[in-house]
Amino acid sequence: MTTTEIRLHINGEATTVHAPPLRRLLDVLRDDLGLKGTKEGCGEGECGACTVLIDGEPINSCLVPACQARGTSVTTIEGVRHESLLDAFVVEGATQCGICTPGMILATRGWLDDCRRRGVTPDEPSARQALAGNLCRCTGYGMIVAAVLRAANEEA
Ligand code: FES
Ligand code: FES
Q1: Which end of the chain is more exposed for a tag (fewer CB within 10 A), N or C?
Q2: How far apart are the first and last CA of the chain?
Q3: Is 48's C-beta closer than 6 angstroms to any atom of ligand 1?
Q4: Hey, whose CA ends up nearest to atom 2 of ligand 2?
Q5: Ligand 1 geometric centre to CA of 119 (Å)
């Protein structure tokens, strides 16, 4: 199968992969680079389990051909260094099976960074909107939203 060279940054490190151009970024991350923290749920853009940040934007990595990530900066759950954000999910009991959790955390990271860039105070309605594309079959959403708002308060 024809492969193409793709240079990008992943979690701050310059990375070069050789992959078929239409191979999903999700598969490159998990299978080629061993970054198994990014999860696959639906595989068709509906659940958000595969969310990563591409240049700071939450994106479903199951929908992105690897070649479209060329030259970008990708952040996966392995690159989230904000302990308060991770701890907030633990403290609020916001995870059960855990399939949705990395995507929830990346979506939260993107939202909090966007709020900071725009000078907007994070609140519950915008938190729920930011997580609208991330589905959880286990927890209900109350504890997840509580975790997100806890993280927002701790970063304020
Ligand atoms: S696995 Fe990508 S959106 Fe569900
Ligand atoms: S914790 Fe299981 S899907 Fe959210």
Answers
A1: N
A2: 49
A3: yes
A4: 97
A5: 30
Residue of 90, 138, 141, 148 to mutate, ligand 2, most atoms within 8 A of C-beta: 138
For residue 61, give the DSSP letter. Answer: G
C-alpha separations of 27 from 44, 48, 61 in Å = 13, 15, 9
The CATH superfamily label for domain 4-78 reads Beta-grasp domain (3.10.20.30)
Name the phi and psi angles at 145, rounded to 5.
Answer: -65, -40
Whether 49 lines ligand 1, by a CB cut-off of 6 Å, is yes
Residue 83 burial (10 A CB sphere; 0-12, 13-18, 19+): exposed
Domain-wise residue ranges, the chain: 4-78, 81-155
pLDDT band at 1 (very low <50, low <70, confident <90, very high): confident
Give me ligand 2 centre to Cα 6, in Å.
Answer: 32
The model's pLDDT over 32-69, given as tens digits with 9 standing for 90+, comes to 999 999 999 999 999 999 999 999 999 999 999 999 99
Contacting residues for 103 by C-beta, under 8 A, at least 6 apart: 38, 39, 47, 48, 49, 50, 51, 134
pTM exceeds 0.85: yes
